[in-house]
Amino acid sequence: MEKFTTAVIGGGAAGLVCAARLQGDGIVLFEKLVRVGKKLSATGNGQGNISNAEVENATYFSVADGGTTLAKRIIGEYGRDSFVDYIHMLGGLCICDERGRIYPASRQASSITDLLRREVAAHGVDVRLGTEVRAIKKTEGGFLLTVSSSGEERRCFAENVVLCAGGKAAKNFGTDGAGYGLAKSLGHTVTPVYPSLVQLKADTRWTKTLKGIRAQDCDVRVLVDGDEVLALSGDVIFTEYGVSGDAIFRLSAYIASSLEKDVRLLLDFAPTVDEATLRDFLADKQARLGGEELLCGVVNNQIGRAILRRYGEEGGDVAALVKRFDVRVTGSLGFDYAQVTKGGVPTVEVDENLQSKKVKGLYLAGEILDVDGQCGGFNLQWAYASACKVAAAIDKK
Ligand SMILES: Cc1cc2nc3c(=O)[nH]c(=O)nc-3n(C[C@H](O)[C@H](O)[C@H](O)COP(=O)(O)OP(=O)(O)OC[C@H]3O[C@@H](n4cnc5c(N)ncnc54)[C@H](O)[C@@H]3O)c2cc1C
Description:
Elements: E1 2-9, H1 13-21, E2 27-30, E3 51-52, E4 60-61, H2 67-77, H3 80-90, E5 94-96, E6 101-104, H4 109-122, E7 126-128, E8 131-139, E9 142-149, E10 152-163, H5 178-185, E11 194-196, E12 200-202, E13 214-224, E14 227-238, E15 242-244, H6 246-255, E16 263-268, H7 275-289, H8 301-314, H9 318-323, E17 325-332, E18 340-342, E19 362-364, E20 372-373, H10 378-396
Bound molecules: flavin-adenine dinucleotide.
């Protein structure tokens, strides 16, 4: 039977970083897909938004208690500069855009995968592609792994196991939630999980005619059961099923676990003018020019017509509809379309080095843990930081 010092399960962002940073011999990386970093290579619309200038002040989420604090502490140790320096050390340069998003200067996410793949090879890591870890059993001094490759099952032994099998989002990248089963088989629990960074389904009664229309730099307020939980600005795109666009992606991280509740988006299509001024302007315009094209030149023409149609049926006040257009959220497009999983293995079940408190020698890193970030490079930063933490802890042993 083959024996290894450390088996890294999952050749995604966290697994690659962990394998590349582990010192010494006997390291194996199992990836069930035929190539490593498939998801990493698709991140940031293929450009690889790996971190963010604001990462140290960012909000991280968790379903169970403890994830946010743990993420902050570990990212405090392995933050943006650490990640950028590491990429530099591997031979890549990073750039920061006007919104603080950090990318490889190549603007190719695949180049981050290439740099990591090269480093993993240079460290002599044994990379087993197309090899799925089916079962892990704790044994004397380590773990017995059952791995499957080309329809054939084999057993191997590893002193340490790093579980970086990702979450449940975007299963076409190898992540269908099966990693949670491996964690559970070793005594861990998993919180409820929710799709995050995802398009939202909504009541389209008033927006049916707006399919494909983008409301640019829209101010969006988010109400859950009547309480405002968030306000942000960005693009909102109306779709057949509801709403998409960068503002929607960003706010989905805050409400992913609240979609059973009454969630409303209040869209402000004219954020540069206050409601009273707009009301006066529209009253004057109506008196001078009539009401037919009242919103022409004020908001996007199609949005203007949708507002006037709603006003025609619901009554009320046109200025209020422009400033507070209410969209009722009815769900999300789900895990297949989500970029990230909210929830996972609770962080109270790992120690400060991300070693399992249930099974010695088992470590967890990346999205499989109950930590998720906002849109903008925060999730790859977590994958990097948590993987660095684990590699350092194993090396210290
Ligand atoms: C389309 C898309 C775009 C994104 N863009 C960004 C972005 O720009 N910035 C950002 O910060 N985040 C982005 N994300 C999120 C980010 O990619 C993830 O949070 C991050 O990749 C998680 O890293 P991970 O290593 O924990 O898991 P993953 O990268 O998901 O890797 C897990 C790996 O484990 C493998 N695996 C699973 N089970 C087994 C098993 N039993 N045996 C062997 N292998 C197994 C899988 O095949 C997979 O390769 C994006 C996500 C998607 C889907």
